[in-house]
Write a structure and sequence with these properties.
Largest sheet: 6 strands, mixed
CATH topology: Rossmann fold
Structural class: alpha/beta
Distance between the termini: 51 Å
Number of domains: 1
Strand content: 15-25%
Bound molecules: adenosine-5'-triphosphate, magnesium ion
């Protein structure tokens, strides 16, 4: 597996605590902000995992905005806004960059993918996305068209719950595509709940918890253990969950 050549565009992100106006107000009150000083990003793939509400999307969005992406998603050329709901965490974020600049990039969030598809239609650039409006394809098809056709490599890709669109088989296909793009000098930061995606071997997994942000091994994640336990014992677990 070719790993050492991956171009390291973003080395580290952190919170400049001296700039935080108050740790009692949103978004600075979130555990992800209170617990973070700096985290090192893997040159290939960094996963952000943790419970619903842990702050994964807030952190990824702040990294995206601080890196010049539109808050709702897209490439650096996207400037549309349907609802200005992003947090101001990026104001206190520090980013340490590598020497090389990425030539491509995309910020993709499941929750605003529809708006990104509309913007692609409006810009008349469907040629870069498989020559078909993303709106004329299913959620999973349009997502895969984007990743297969538009992501060109030598890029930084920030993905928020990419599994939301994808069947388990397509999640496996996404792992292959991520690997191709990593070998083409790309770096990914991915917020996910998918025990399939986070198995990508050449990665760092950060678990965002209420009291810490820590690196975890894949098999130590809750996603792995709960899914494994369920699939191995689904009948007895369901009997326990559903008992009156
Ligand atoms: N505008 C806001 N004002 C106050 N709190 C907010 C605001 N927007 C989001 N939050 C809170 O910030 C917390 C972190 O949200 P975030 O979307 O980052 O979580 P997440 O880890 O991505 O969760 P999920 O796994 O469900 O996507 C949540 O508890 C959410 O309710
Ligand atoms: Mg989220």
């Amino acid at each position: 597996m070719k790993t050492m050549d991956a171009t390291h565009y973003l080395l580290q992100v952190g919170i400049d605590r001296s700039k935080v106006p108050s740790f009692n107000e949103y978004p600075y009150c979130l555990p992800v902000c209170r617990n973070m000083t700096t985290i090192d990003l893997h040159p290939s793939v960094t996963f952000l995992v943790g419970e619903n509400g842990a702050g994964k999307s807030t952190l990824l969005e702040a990294i995206a905005i601080a890196s010049g992406f539109n808050a709702e998603g897209g490439s650096r050329n996207f400037g549309f806004s349907t609802r200005a709901s992003h947090s101001c965490l990026h104001d206190v974020l520090t980013i340490r960059r590598g020497l090389k600049r990425p030539q491509d990039g995309f910020f993709l969030r499941a929750e605003s993918f529809y708006n990104v598809a509309t913007e692609i239609d409006n810009l008349g650039v469907t040629g870069y996305y498989g020559n078909r409006s993303l709106h004329d394809q299913s959620h999973g098809e349009s997502f895969m068209a984007l990743v297969m056709e538009r992501f060109r490599g030598n890029g930084i890709y920030l993905l928020d719950e990419p599994e939301a669109a994808l069947s388990p088989t397509r999640q496996l296909a996404l792992i292959s595509r991520i690997h191709q793009l990593v070998q083409a000098n790309s770096q990914f930061i991915i917020a996910t709940h998918s025990p399939i995606l986070m198995a990508y071997p050449n990665a760092t997994i950060y678990s965002l918890a209420s009291d810490s942000i820590s690196k975890v091994e894949y098999t130590d994640t809750e996603h792995y253990s709960v899914t494994r336990q369920f699939l191995n014992n689904h009948e007895s677990m369901l009997a326990e969950l559903l008992k009156e």
